[in-house]
Write a structure and sequence with these properties.
Elements (H helix, E strand, L loop, with lengths): L3 H13 L5 H18 L4 H4 L8 H6 L16 H10 L6 H12 L2 E6 L2 E6 L2 H9 L11 H10 L10 H15 L2 H5 L2 H20 L6 E2 L2 H17 L13 H15 L1 H9 L10 H33 L8 H8 L4 H32 L1 H15 L14 H13 L6 E4 L4 E3 L2 E3 L4 E4 L1 H5 L43 H18 E5 L8 E4 L1 E4 L5 E5 L3
Bound molecules: protoporphyrin IX containing FE.
Protoporphyrin IX containing FE binds next to helix 17 and helix 21.
Length: about 550
């Protein structure tokens, strides 16, 4: 499919010709006006929209494929949105609402939240079009409150919250360090040490239960594993999350993270409530700042600790070796404030995302014993008895990779993703002016039958390529996003998940606990289990 940039270039070329007649000009002026007036609720930028280069295609393609305006786009009314979100707690069902709206309004639809207009794109090919047309520094939506907090404390933004030149500069540094599988393969041993502790922890926890097998609320366990694992890579240090006694500073961080997560709705309002209303409704902004204070404090502590170690080593005339943080501190491609902010944001981004995925993967394995057995056989056959997998083994374990992909297809931690368009676009036949907020509906595309046969079934083997020419669909399920602004921690997360799941499957048969019935997903910022998942971990016979 031709990309939008090709499309607009072609239009521009056509415009150089002399095909535009007067009559057409008037039709287009009218079209321009209606698009601009629809856009006026979005941003001032939208009103400058509909440049002449979008004019010619209307004539060229004829009435059948006329470019439509936002006004013509279907979507729920403001009132039904209010009822859905405020009355029926839609914030915890964003994934389900995506599916409902997709069914009712089609591949592309608009929703209004007060003055904010959001265009939802709920189709694999349209999502692909939007992402392929992105420029050099795509803009994420709704990060103003994050930026405001950072300005307030005199900190920098990190990758998640930065935009434009600032983002580009930091991204170009970090992408050299952790974006390729081989960049993170060097952390295999560090991650495996954390996996050792995870296995020990499973054994300790289950001995505390009468059946000697159950681990309650596995997400608690995986949260600690994910935090320990990502910190081992980012901070090059161990935090003690999987110990019986968790160090106070680590516990403080966990409290701050939980506050951020548990007060998600309140903190979301922190961004939505205008500044002048804060004295009247102070709680959302206060909680938002309190949790960020905790997260930044922890990051500064660990970065400063590593800096002091490096300085001491240099004073002693020793060679300094290390990983990501050491590289950043020595090479000085980023300021100290940028380093603090990026490590804070990366740790935040890397914990719940990874732990929810591990929880869902274990849950799915327990619910599908035959699939679990199939994966166990692959691991046993490939690695031999008792061998510990490293990153180099993962390409030889396609079902372990399929397990992670399939889990993220069924439970994409980020069920949707946001963008502010930086150019005028035509998507799905609609003119979308620059400055429009887009919601890319990854959850609903993951369940489209035309993308994935028997889409509700859990089938890790659907991701196995039959040969090198076989392409398994990618844009239908892109849990890490796509392109230049995609998840920078993808390889880190995959390494942590592949190594943990391989070892868990080698060691234990993971079974449903009678207390865990059908666990549904709910949206709470991220897509997470709506109820605790309790599972049994039964030793496999060696
Ligand atoms: C299962 C685990 C994870 C999932 C599903 C996930 C998913 C995502 C998604 C969907 C985005 C938005 C991409 C976009 O806007 O196109 C994102 C961004 C990001 N993620 Fe992850 N993530 C995971 C783990 C991690 C980890 C472990 C880290 C850190 C080591 C991390 C750091 C980030 C950062 C810094 C960004 C912002 C990137 C930018 O704007 O340049 N993520 N992630």
């Amino acid at each position: 499919m031709a990309s939008l940039s090709h499309f607009t270039t072609a239009c521009w070329k056509n415009l150089q010709g002399d095909r535009m007649n007067k009559q057409l000009f008037f039709i287009l002026r009218a079209l321009h006006k209606s698009a601009a007036s629809e856009a006026s609720g979005i941003s001032a930028a939208g009103e400058e929209a509909m440049p002449d280069r979008l004019i010619t295609p209307v004539a060229d393609v004829g009435e059948k494929t006329r470019i439509m305006t936002l006004k013509e786009m279907p979507g729920p009314s403001t009132l039904s949105n209010l009822v859905e979100f405020i009355w029926r707690d839609g914030f915890s069902r964003i994934h389900e609402i995506q599916m409902e709206h997709r069914k009712k309004f089609g591949k592309i639809f608009k929703s209004r939240f007060g003055p904010q207009l959001v265009v939802s794109v709920a189709d694999r090919d349209l999502v692909a079009e939007v992402l392929r047309a992105e420029g050099v520094a795509p803009q994420r939506a709704n990060m103003e409150s994050w930026k405001e907090y950072r300005d307030m404390i005199g900190s920098s933004t990190g990758l998640i919250s930065a935009e434009g030149e600032d983002w580009l500069k930091m991204r170009s540094v970090l992408r050299q360090l952790i974006m390729r599988p081989r960049d993170v393969a060097v952390f295999s041993d560090d991650v495996n040490k954390v996996v050792d502790d995870l296995i020990k922890r499973v054994c300790i926890l289950r001995t505390q239960e009468p059946d000697g097998a159950t681990v309650h609320n596995v997400n608690d366990l995986f949260f600690k594993y994910a935090m320990e694992g990502v910190a081992a890579i980012l901070y090059e240090s161990r935090l003690g999350c999987l110990e019986n006694e968790i160090p106070q500073e680590t516990q403080d961080y966990i409290t701050a993270l939980h506050l951020m997560f548990s007060s998600f709705k309140t903190t979301m309002y922190a961004g939505a409530i205008p500044k002048w209303l804060r004295p009247v409704i102070p709680k959302p902004w206060e909680e938002f700042c309190l949790s960020w204070d905790g997260l930044f404090k922890f990051s500064r502590l660990h970065v400063d600790k590593r800096l002091a170690e490096i300085e001491a080593q240099l004073e002693r005339g020793e060679d300094v070796k290390g990983g990501l943080l050491t590289h950043l501190l020595i090479n000085k491609e980023m300021t100290m404030e940028e380093i603090y902010a990026n490590l804070t944001e990366m740790l935040l981004a890397g914990v719940d995302t990874t732990s929810f995925t591990l929880s869902w993967a274990s849950y799915l394995l327990a619910r599908h014993p035959r699939v679990q057995q199939q994966i166990f056989m692959e691991v046993k056959r490939t690695l031999g008895p008792g061998a510990v997998a490293t990153a180099d083994d993962v390409p030889r374990l396609p079902l372990i990779r399929g397990l992670v992909k399939e889990t993220l297809r069924l439970f994409p931690v980020l069920p949707g993703n946001g963008r502010i368009t930086q150019d005028d676009l035509v998507v799905g036949g609609y003119f979308i002016p620059k400055g429009t907020q887009l919601a890319l509906c990854h959850y609903s595309t993951s369940f489209e039958e035309e993308n994935f046969a028997d889409a509700s079934d859990f089938r890790p083997d659907r991701w196995i390529r039959k040969d090198s020419t076989d392409r398994v669909d990618n844009f239908g399920s892109i849990p890490f996003g796509y392109g230049i602004r995609s998840c920078i921690g993808k390889r880190v997360a995959e390494l942590e998940m592949h190594l943990a799941l391989t070892r868990l499957i080698q060691k234990f048969q993971i079974c449903m606990c009678p207390r865990t019935a059908d666990v549904k997903a709910k949206t709470h910022g991220l897509l997470c289990p709506a109820a605790p998942i309790h599972l049994q971990f039964i030793d496999r016979e060696i």
